[in-house]
# Entry
Amino acid sequence: MLLETTRLAFSAILRNALRSFLTILGIIIGVAAVIAMVTVGQGSTAQVETDVSKLGSNLLMIRPGQASQGPGSAGGAYSASLTLKDVEAIEAEIPSVRAATPNSSQSMTAIFGNENHTTTVVGTDNRYLVARDWPVETGREFYDSELRAGAAACILGTTVVTELFGSSNPFGETIRIKQISCRVVGVLESKGASSFGSDEDDRILIPIRTFQRRIAGNQDVSMIYAAVRDGASTDKAKTEIERLMRERRRISPGEEDDFNVMDMKQISSMLTGITSVLTGMLSAVAAVSLLVGGIGIMNIMLVSVTERTREIGIRLAIGATESQVLFQFLVEAIVLSLIGGFLGIVFGLTLAFAGSRMLSVPFMPDAGIVALAFAFSAVVGIVFGYFPARRAARMDPIEALRHQ
# Structure
C-alpha cells in the first residue's frame, strides 16, 4: 500500500512539475541556507582558532594603558611606556614564564634594488622566536653582539622574501629600511596568512635597540610577549605579572592598572564565542525559510484538494476509507518536502564549499546538521501537509461528486 501511495504521490507531483518545484523552493532555500551558514560558521571558528594558535601557545601580551572596553577603544589615558627592564624583570621574577621578549613595530617600506615593499618592521630579540614558537628556517638568529650594539641586521618573513627577492636567496644581501642599510641574516619559517586580515609572514625583525635608536628615537617598548611554560597556569602567570608590574610602576592599592595583560586563550575563546553566536543567529534566520516553505506546501496542497474534489469523491464512493485518503495526501506533502530537503542539501553544500573558498576558511560539513535539516524538512511536510489531507479525508462523498 505504501509503495502504491508513493507512486500516486509522484504521479500527482509530476503532473504539475513547475508548480511542485515552486512549492518546494522555500524548503530548498531554507535547508540550503541552514547548512551553508552552519558549515561556513564552523569553518570560520576553526580558522580563528588556527590563527590565534599561530601567535604562540600559552602566550600573554602586556601593553601600556588600560584594557580596551570594546571595538575601537583606545584603552585609557596616557600611561608610562614599557621598557627593556620590564622585560628582564618578568623573565627573571616570574618562574612560570619561559621567555619574555620586547616587541615594537612600525609599518615601513623595505627596498632591494628596484623592488620595494611596505611591510611591518618589528624591533625585538631572539626570545621573540621562542615566545612565538617561530623558528628561523634558513640562516641564523641575531648574535648577542648584534643585539647589544644595535646592529643593522634583519630576519625576513617569507612574504618579504618573495616580494623583494623572488626565488633568489636573500641571505647576506643588504636591504634598505628608511635610512638603515640592513644585512639579511635569516628567513623565518612560513606561518601562512591570517583570516584577521594580516599576513603573519609579512614582517622584518631587527634588534630592539636598533629599532629604538634609529627608527623610534626613544627607549620605549610597545608590547611585551610572555610565553608561559608548558603545564603552568596562564591565569596564575597573568596574576603574578600584574602584581609585579604594579610594583614596578608604583601603583597604589585601589588605583587602576595603567597597563593590561591579555591571555591569548581568552582572546581565542572570545572570538570563537562571537563566531558561534553569529552562526547560530544567521542559522535561526535561515530556518525561517523552512517555515515559509511549509506554509507554501500547505497552500498548494489545499489547492490540490480543491482541484481533485471529484477524484476524492469517487475514491470515497467506491470504498476508500478516510484514513486512506488522508494517507494519500499526507504522503504527497511528505514527498514534496523530502525532495526539497534533498535538493536543499546539495545546494547548501555547494554554497558552503564556494563560501569557504571565497573566505579562505576550512570546508567543514557537519553530518549531524545535514541529517537534522533533512529530518526537519520531513517534519515540515507532515505538519503542514496534515491539515489539507484531513480536509480531503473528511469530505462528504455526495457533495464531492457534485463538485464541478
Notes: The chain has 13 helices and ten strands. Residues 69-78 have pLDDT under 50 and may be disordered.
